[in-house]
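agent: user wants the structure for Response regulator receiver domain-containing protein from Actinokineospora terrae. delegating to structure tool.
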Amino acid sequence: MTRIVVAEDDPDLRDLLEFKLVQAGYEVTAVSTGREALDEAEAAQLFLLDVTLPDMTGLQVCSRLRAEVATRDTPVVLLTGHTQEADVEAGRLSGASDYIFKPFSPRDLVDRIGALLTAGGEPPGR
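agent: tool returned. relaying tokens verbatim.
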């Protein structure tokens, strides 16, 4: 089964993301910090990271994932309320695969994750 690590410090949003992704057929590990996301890194097929986490930014987590051989090619989706062009560019420079602005449609998020995983050969539930 495809495993997604969700790092989101807002408990309500984290629960919603976990629910929607499990409903779509993914195995989800939901955490609230960047450190916890990094601790779960090796078993994940995709990371969904809030840009603003309490201990480090999602950009920093993404950069660390890209620096490791085991996670270098693992898709990373950043979630953020920051919509400035400079913020989007920072996401790209950190190595993010996609950048999704809050608020967002849960259905759109699931579709975009599915497209990233399908492009990488990981359909839901596999």
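agent: one observation worth passing along. Helices lie at 11-23, 34-39, 58-67, 85-94, 106-119.
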